[in-house]
């Protein structure tokens, strides 16, 4: 039996009080970070591989179903506003298409050719990286994506929570975070989903830092998409330039459109 399908260590959940349920879920969640930490060597290998390819124009594709697919699409969608990277540097596809982000599309995950078909409009190249995301490790959509991507020369990896899985066998860089049985038996949207989100954060954030989109600890290329981000950017400009007047820093930021450009222009004046 797959680890993610093993019976919960907790029973009689329907008889628990709300506090007991929350304490049980919290206790299980506290184990996730340790499981992810065990996979750091593989995550490091993947990040190094992605950076090398991205410097040659490569991109990152995520492919998954259900919760796994939604997490990949979520991570990819946050890269342009957070780091100012061009859209399309990270791309997520989910079995069943965009409709599956809100609704379960029955049977879509069982198509081993589905992901590569969904990726076709992006014309994958050998300089790209494909990461299949599947908590169970057996989802045909993710397994097929990795297998086909590898045949086409892409760097391939997986994020799964079951050892000795089909996705791990196909991937060049298998990332396996064994979080154990879920609080509710088989509900991999819980600990497994949390582990996958943590790993995706690690991968994309580390890659973007290595690609120069962070200075010090600041998101200097973030998009000024709303008043909160303009305020954050203004304070970054003040800190980096020594400008003490908020409105002066804000006007400088809005004039140049990014923290990076505003700071560099100020320092070169």
What does this structure look like?
- The chain has 269 residues and is α/β, with parallel strands linked by helices.
- The chain contains 11 helices and 5 strands; from the N terminus they run H-H-H-E-H-E-H-E-H-E-H-E-H-H-H-H.
- The chain has helices at 18-29, 32-37, 40-54, 66-83, 114-119, 140-151, 166-170, 191-210, 227-241, 246-256, 259-268; strands spanning 60-64, 90-94, 129-133, 155-160, 173-176.
- The chain has a 5-stranded parallel β-sheet with strand order 2-1-3-4-5, with helices on both faces.
- Helix 3 crosses helix 8 (191-210) and helix 10 packs across helix 11 (259-268).
- The relative contact order is 0.15.
Q: What is the chain-wise order of helices and strands?
A: HHHEHEHEHEHEHHHH
Span between termini = 66 Å
Q: How big a fraction of the residues is strand? A: 5-15%
- Overall pLDDT level: 96
Number of strands: 5
């Amino acid at each position: 039996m797959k680890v993610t399908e093993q019976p919960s260590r907790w029973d009689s959940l329907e008889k628990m009080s709300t506090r007991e349920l929350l304490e049980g879920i919290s206790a299980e969640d506290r184990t996730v970070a340790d499981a992810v930490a065990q996979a750091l060597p593989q995550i490091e290998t993947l990040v190094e591989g992605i950076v090398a390819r991205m410097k040659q124009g490569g991109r990152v594709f995520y492919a998954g179903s259900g919760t796994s697919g939604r997490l990949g699409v979520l991570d990819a969608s946050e890269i342009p506003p957070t780091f100012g990277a061009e859209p399309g540097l990270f791309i997520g596809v989910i079995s069943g298409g965009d409709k599956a982000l809100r609704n379960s599309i029955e049977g879509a995950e069982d198509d081993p050719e589905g992901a590569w078909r969904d990726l076709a409009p992006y014309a994958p190249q050998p300089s790209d990286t494909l990461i299949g995301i599947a908590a169970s490790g057996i989802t045909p959509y993710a397994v097929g994506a990795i297998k086909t991507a590898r045949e086409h020369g892409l760097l391939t990896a997986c994020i799964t929570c079951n050892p000795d899985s089909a996705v791990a066998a196909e991937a060049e860089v298998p990332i396996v975070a064994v979080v154990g049985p879920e609080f509710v038996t088989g509900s991999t949207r819980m600990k497994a989903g949390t582990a996958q989100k943590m790993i995706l954060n690690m991968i994309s954030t580390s890659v973007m830092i290595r690609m120069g989109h962070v200075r010090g600890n600041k998101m200097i290329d973030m998009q000024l998409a709303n008043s909160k981000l303009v305020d954050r950017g203004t304070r970054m400009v003040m800190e980096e330039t020594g400008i003490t007047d908020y409105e002066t820093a804000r006007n400088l930021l809005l004039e140049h459109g990014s923290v990076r450009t505003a700071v560099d222009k100020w320092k070169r004046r």
